[in-house]
Amino acid sequence: MKLVRGIIASLNRGDVDGMLARMDPDFEWTPLEASPIARVYRGHEQVRGYVEDWLGTFEELQLELEEHPTEVADRVVAVVRGHGRGRASGLRLDSRFCQVWRLRGGTAMGMEEYASREQALAALSPA
What we know:
This protein is α+β, with helices and mostly antiparallel strands. Helix content is 32%, strand content 43%. It has a single domain, classed as Nuclear Transport Factor 2, Chain: A. It is built from four helices and seven strands; from the N terminus they run H-H-E-E-H-E-E-E-E-E-H. Strands 1, 2, 3, 4, 5, 6 and 7 form a seven-stranded mixed beta sheet that branches. The model has no long low-confidence stretch (mean pLDDT 92).
């Protein structure tokens, strides 16, 4: 869970290199399905591009963990609130969503985003 907090802290500082240093070279980031640019971003190069696009789109972009992350099997479930303001539009962003992190040996292997904690937990449940 310290690893997830460290990644989010790096992102909040705009330290993309610090964030990537905690991620496996083949890290996979799956954004919310509702995202206009939803697709899986694989590897440091694609993840860097995705994150730098978001950082360039928003001023004051910050992610906060709303509650203590929960371990479920080999995953960490984190409820996140994103705050920011559109750089061009000036519109405020206040979004609550859930991230499910896959960790191994002190490295983040991947992360999927869901609209709610309930959706995230349902995705982790065996069919």
